[in-house]
Amino acid sequence: MKNNDALFKRMRESQLFWPLVALALILLLDLIFAPGFFKIGILDGHLYGNLIDVVNNAAPLMLVAIGMTLVIATGGVDLSVGAVIAISAALGAVLINPALGNVLIENKILAANTTNTPLPIVVLVNIVAGTLCGLWNGMLVSRGRISPMVATLILMVAGRGIAQLITNGQIMTVYYQPYWWFGNGFILGLPVSIYIVAIIFIMAWLLVRKTAIGMFIESVGINSKATYYSGISEKNIKLFVYTFCGFCSAWAGLILGSYIHGVDANNIGLLYELDAILAVVIGGTLMSGGRFSLLASVIGALLIWTFTITMYTFGVPANALLAGRAVLVLIVIILYSDYTRRVINKLSDQKGIKHGVSN
Amino acid sequence: MASQTKPLSDSVMTVKRSDTVQRLKNFLIKNGPLATTIVIFFVLYLIGSWLYPAMQKPQVVFNLFINQASLLLVSIGMTLVIIAKGIDLSVAGVIALTTAASAALLAAGMSPFIVMPLMLVMGITFGLAQGWLIHFFKVEPFIVTLMGLFFARGMAYIITLSSLTINDPVYRFLALTKVYIPFFEKVYVYIPTFVAPVMLLVTIYLSFFTQFGRTVYAIGNNEQSALLMGLPVARTKLLVYAFSGLCSAMAGIVWSVSLLSGYGGYAPGMELDAIASVVIGGTMLTGGIGTVIGTLFGVLINGTIVSILQFNGTLSSWWTRIGVGVLTLIFLGVQSLFYMRQKHS
């Protein structure tokens, strides 16, 4: 009995526990009220269904959440991810635009299934641009000693302006079909985006769990000064996490731009910074930094999209869904607060004592 | 760090060297960021009026106050919250909710003299609830107010999915009556324009001359110390968020009066404009340092950039965002320069 309690306590203290419980609750809700939610069929040789939709839609958010987890673990925050997504997607659309350089732009040329720049270069430029944005944030935070919220706020405000500058304020549509593959393609029946997420997740996981970098990141988040005095270059750690976050956001931008076949610099990746922070917080990583879990953040992102698609299934309008999401956050806040934790611990401890007495 | 050493070093310095030059130097260093903001505003305006002579007309200056009324109101509330080491992202959401709710209530035939106080009460309640969550559940202000933003916008969309028109005669009267400014020819403002300056004066009084204001600064510098000093930390924190909610509700009323409609999508991204204005105005996001006067000039700088772009006519609106971003960056450099000087001198 005692052993059982200890196991339960260890489970409860794992960062994965609450996100998984919440996810299970939402899926249970679906099971009862919308059994069709779980139907997975095969169409044109790939899987389709609500669950696949959830995973495909959540992929960009998962990517951003992976980068954001590391940033938040150092005690910072990156508000610019939405803007980086917009910049990256805008660059992609502009580079592909076949009408570029033509004096006379005809619809025939514009809508042709061709590209101005080879696709590998487009992808490379996308990723490099996002990574540079991350590097800029990292320089401001680590070298400029500006508080993370302000430093990334600059790019958040200016970044969308830059993205609009790139697209010249137009909503651009991409007709080049190979570019669509990243957001809409399938490998072995599963969406391509999921493979991208898996590769970056494994990369990040190896980096932080199989090398000392993860430990350094946590120590910077817990006490940046002590880390510096123990001989770790906390500046470079900070620089690295912001750059990595930019890298992840660039991939998210590529997937999102490809998913919608184009870019609207004003709206692409809107509110992603907030959703990503939400995913990380749902994953149990504290905003003040320190202990973190990549997997928990990814589950957090998945949770947000499961909730969203579930609400769509129930016919809630997209705009009104914001209020539903707020209620979700409220529940998470109250579940995660010290107060609730104390109450739950006290309850289970009391149970343990009772068992002790009866034994 | 600078924020904590500031009051101490000031008092030590004034006691040690009391010659006029030193005092002047201290004064300049202490008020440097504010002075820089004011200078930037005037330089920007001069550049604007040099490029576009039409900007020299006094009406353009008053237009700044007419067009930026909501932003100014929101920024005033935001300044106090940021000085108390918090942040309020829900402001734009409360504006949208206020416009949508008042439009719906007016359409249902309720008297505007009940609707307006009701909206103010709603704003205060909203702020209080957020402050309560932040203080008693010890959650990051960022997360709580983010939830507030989602919640308020979502509620506004639940009230109405499309824009609702306001046909109330009182609102129309408020929106369309021009108030001519004495001593200037043909220069006018509208009645709602006066709300923000009055609120500014009230906030200057509150922040500099009352116990509440001093407590806000104390909490921003070090909440633990403030608590140990026996200051009413919990009450003040709740009040600061309630005040921000009140300001946002007022901004919402001003918005619904000037546009005569209500919609959940109004004021997109205004929380960021407000934060940028507050930062440009010399308030530190780390809390404890800053003034509402600086915020006024931060908002005016924002407005000036917009007017320059409007006068130009060919530059597109996204230059506003780039301009605000660059200015925020410049100002951060200035700030850190001044606070470094202060620490070393």
Tell me what the structure shows.
Chain A has one domain (47-301). Chain A contains 16 helices and 6 strands. The model of chain A has no long low-confidence stretch (mean pLDDT 84). The relative contact order of chain A is 0.19. Chain A is mostly helical and 359 residues long. In chain A, strand 1 (40-43) and strand 2 (46-49) form a beta hairpin. With 345 residues, chain B is an all-alpha fold. Chain B has a domain at 58-266. Chain B contains 15 helices and 4 strands. In chain B, helix 2 (20-51) packs parallel to helix 14, helix 3 (58-67) crosses helix 14 (292-312) and helix 4 runs antiparallel to helix 14 (292-312). The radius of gyration of chain B is 21 Å and the shape is globular. The model of chain B is unreliable at 1-6 (pLDDT under 50). The interface between A and B is large, with 46 and 43 residues.
List keywords for this structure.
heterodimer; A: 359 residues; mainly alpha; two-stranded antiparallel ribbon; 16 helices; 6 strands; globular; B: 345 residues; two-stranded antiparallel sheet; 15 helices; disordered N terminus
